[in-house]
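Exercise 7.
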Amino acid sequence: MGKDLMSIREKRLALGWSQEQLATIAGLSPRTIQRIENGQTPGLETVKSLATAFETDVETLTRGKDMGLETTQTREMTKAHVKEIKGLHLHLWVFALVFPVLLMMNLFVTGGPMWVQWVLVFWLLGIVLHAVTVRVMHGSLRLPPE
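Solution. The predicted structure, written as tokens, is:
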């Protein structure tokens, strides 16, 4: 932490505020202030409220601190996660749009043996492997909150 940066507690004390006063000014509960000062990670909306109370911005308030908010590295990881999940969704949409066409071709155009079943098996295997890869790399198949 930089020398010019203070913790929430230090900022509060420098202004001569009690936890209750900060909570009132920030529109939070005193218990929330207690939790933050005891090391609990605040949510983004809470940090925004605190930044407003301290008449600063979120960036300045959180710079140099691990408050559980995104750093450049986690932002890049989140971007990669979103990209991977969107790729999986695209994979699913392409399957949903193309496979019925292949099925119709197999049934009505080429006739004969059902070759489309092999396309189905291997394509579904590809989708499962894609989903497993995303899950292993990012720990989730859900898009991260914005």
